[in-house]
Amino acid sequence: QVQLVESGGGLVQPGGSLRLSCATSGFTFVIRTLSWVRQAPGKELEWVSRITSGGTTTYADSAKGRFTISRDNAKKTLYLHMNGLKPEDTAVYYCRLDVTGTRGQGTQVTVSS
To answer: pLDDT tens digit string along 26-37?
Structure first.
């Protein structure tokens, strides 16, 4: 079955950086579009970024210029490099297999001084 396992979250000061990873299995990674989405406390799920099988990337306005999505097809792993983190980036971050909407368990990112 489809499995998505996020890691790399943590507590970081404003302006800091983190790299999130999403290890996957149970589907043909190389042909699928994947996204990162996040959910802040008390808020709805928010789409952050997407990468297609061909490597085309798109970003929410809140992520443009600060976040970079990438994928390693050999490792079947999705990444999100986050720079210039702000307190409003605090959320649980999930990777999502777009064709099914399946998400992992998430990884907590907290941006605070």
So the answer is: 999 999 999 999
